[in-house]
Amino acid sequence: MAGIGGLVGGSALDDELKRSNVVRLRGLPFSASESDISDFFKGLEMGPDGVVICVNFQGRSTGQAYVQFATAELANKALERNRQHIGSRYIEVFKGHPADMQGALRMVGRGSGTVTGSSAVAAGGILNTGIPGMSGNPDMRYTGVVRMRGMPYSCTSADITAFFKGMQVVVDGIFLCTHADGRPTGEAFVEFANEETAARAMQLHREPMGSRYVELFRSTKGEMMTAVQQRMYGMFSGAGGFSQFGVGQIPGMMGAFGVQGLTGMNVAAMQAAGLGSMAGLQGLSDTSEHVCIKMRGLPYNAGQREIMDFFEGYNILPNGIHIVMGATDRPTGEAFVEFITSDEAQRAMERHRQNIGSRYIELFRATKRFVLLASYR
């Protein structure tokens, strides 16, 4: 039977997981549906949130899911299904935290959890993160987004607002695309207050902006978020940085934002969006906390999955694995892993000099500050 992640008994998180009525699934076929998962747990009564399949910013399944049961006892019983099959894949079943499930629900527009913080969620579930392109509707499948192409390179957000005069754009809902060196590409994404307004905006297709006519295309929030993500990773072009280990994911410690990019961030709204590892953001003000481990000696073909398997039974933050890339965009053989607590990181040091394949891996304790600085190497 799968446990609760091998946590040391008596910790606050351990107690929360024991009381949790949520389980996390890993290793799902990408074609698996909510109904397949319901059948997998046939005979166990589910809670009101039922099943949610985790998706990335492109709206595609990550192979993970959360399931809420009617009681914690039923969730414990669900652990007995660990390593049983859906199709040809065996499924790993772990106890999950309700907050993590709420984040997954918000990624598909079903979030019901409340998030505290100033103006995190406005009326209608609209988010205000304080970051251009990352506000608005948290559903990655939302189609109230328009992509613009062919704009003058001098175009600003104010010019775009004027272009769509009379049509409501969400706060921080304009993202101007740039190359890695900061030069504008002539493209932008605009998120409107609703899908009807986005459809009306399409009437301006091939209308002029200055001396250029502008092409418009219907888009989704997921495509917009992917563009934001690519810009963030582009900050490390030619200088090394963290790898894009999962399509559409943002690393848990927000290394790709850079230190300056954290200024003015509405953390509560980012939590409401379920973007990246929000537990990591909560403690970001104290970057001296030793919740991270530096790995050295990794096989160059080792990815997120191999690192997760290496730390099987230890509680890693969602999206808390950061593979370090060199200046030529090749792996350096190093990675950083962020754990849920400093104690859990210390426990994970038990894996020092254990192997991945034929290579033994050296482990070193690290702080969040060290990881943020490493992103600028």
Would you kindly provide a written description of the structure presented here, covering whatever features stand out?
The chain has 377 residues and is α+β, with helices and mostly antiparallel strands. The protein folds into 3 domains: 12-107, RRM (RNA recognition motif) domain (Alpha-Beta Plaits); 123-229, 2-Layer Sandwich (Alpha-Beta Plaits), CATH 3.30.70.330; 239-374, Alpha-Beta Plaits. It contains 12 helices and 18 strands. The chain has helices spanning 12-19, 34-40, 72-78, 98-107, 157-163, 195-201, 221-234, 267-273, 278-282, 304-310, 342-348, 368-374, and strands at residues 22-26, 46-55, 61-69, 85-86, 89-90, 92-96, 145-149, 169-178, 184-192, 207-209, 212-219, 241-242, 292-296, 316-325, 331-339, 355-356, 359-360, 362-366. The strands form 5 sheets. It has a 5-stranded antiparallel sheet with strand order 8-9-7-11-10, sandwiched between helices. Strands 12-14-15-13-18 form a 5-stranded antiparallel sheet. The two termini are 43 Å apart.
